[in-house]
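Progress narrative, Year 2. Work on 60S ribosomal protein L6 from Dillenia turbinata advanced from sequence curation to structure prediction during this period.
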Amino acid sequence: MAPKVKKPRTSSRNPDLIRGVGKYSRSQMYHKRGLWAIKAKHGGVFPKHDPSPNLRPFKINGVPLRRVHQAYVIATSTKVDISGVNAEKFDDKYFAKVAEEKKKKNEGEFFEAEKEEKIELLVAKKEDQKAVDAALIKSIEVVPDLKDYLAARFSLKAGMKLHELVF
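Result:
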């Protein structure tokens, strides 16, 4: 019996799939575009063309105000009127962590000081979240079934081909 000759391994994968499904250029993620978050729980709305895209509203899809990398987002053709949303203050400075000076503290100050500062930041961010949600929900409720569309979880079933889907 002759020994088997090993064939050189060729990649049978689709090069588009190797680069990643759903990685769209920033030109497709323009103002007012509806988005599906691939790794997050639900989709959202892309309100501002910014180096750090954000998904909203929290009350519908549970995605808070935060930065989401464009690699984890699929652009859709759904548009939402967000003219009532003031998104000017949501930039990299808003989402950046505050650099703190390290100080030596005694036991009593160690736990109490950090809690008070974090509570103030959380209250301010919750106020911003409520303001954004109020404006977005008004425009989302005007369009029938848009609330259910944004709240739906993205999934593929057997026989569904991602490249043939139209969002």
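Confidence is low (pLDDT under 50) at residues 20-26, 28-32, 50-54. The beta strands are 33-37, 44-46, 73-79.
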